[in-house]
Amino acid sequence: MPGQLIDGIDPMAVTGGNAHDHDGGDGAAVPYATGLSGQPTLGTAAAADIGTGAGDVAAGDDSRLSDDRDPTAHASNHTDGTDDIQDATASAKGLMTAAYAAKLDAVGALTTDTTVNLTYDMTAAQIQALIDAQPLNLGGYTLTFQFGDGTYNSTMTARLTLPPFYAGTVVLQGNTGDTTPYEPGTTDPAVILDMSAGTTDCIYAFRVAARLLVQNLWIKTADASYAMALDLSGCSGQVVIKNVVLEAAGQVNVTIGIGAYSCNAVSVYTSFVSNQYLGISSQTSRLFSNGNDDYGTAPKYGLQAGSAGVVGKTGTQPAGGTNNELVESGGEIR
User: Fold this and answer.
1) In the chain, what is the straight-line distance between the N-terminal and C-terminal CA atoms, in Å?
2) 107, 133 in Cβ contact below 8 A?
3) For site-directed labelling of 230, which of 65, 82, 141, 195 has its Cα 20 to 30 A away?
4) Integer angstrom CA distances of residue 4 from 10, 26, 81, 326
């Protein structure tokens, strides 16, 4: 019969006809919880409506969960100290620094002969910034650093560095009207680079592959260890120095007028050295000295060749207070 279980027992055949026993007595009601005490907490989202307003919850297919949106502008936070991105280096990602940007700007090449005018009231840092702003690739043109007349002194406490320029000519020069050899005390250069208040070189040419011409300058250096008026290091291009006066404040330390180190070809013409330990020096370099002299206090050694360096000479040469020439470590003067 309908409603009867397979064992033939009628579930409705219980006391009262409309209830059955769950807790020991027919006719007792099944107990139900009347509150949420002790039950899992569902949170406010369970009771919130689905929608786009405040307090609503988003549906799983809400378009806001998948549409493209630009982030809020916040670039300044990464450069003002709030949440800065690290500087980029050769081995780490980051933001390009001003120093790297300056180097990148210099990757181009000259497109014409260029003159950079310098004045005696500039600091060494200002002059160096103008040097560094030039492209290394000279593109076959001439880059001239023109020193205006005057004495560059109290602000010249750091050396000027020529970077590895190539494919052209670099000129460092004073007054172009000084066309005859100087006679210090009689006809002095119009441009004096006085770095005697510093402790290092005056002009440092580092691996310059372009032709380098230095002329019409009076360069003064301090009596400091290995302070040089002209420090030429690893220059593969031809270097020509003419009509310059090189003077040190003393020779207690190893001061040098012109020092050539691992250079291919250096020629020095009609120039004067004074009061250095070494007037003209060649170390692992080929140097030609033609018609040079000393004035005032002679250097200890007029010419020096060492570390297989060679000095070829002709005409007058600077005398030395100790000896005119110093040859050591496989050097040669001939």
Assistant:
1) 136
2) no
3) 141
4) 5, 19, 82, 130
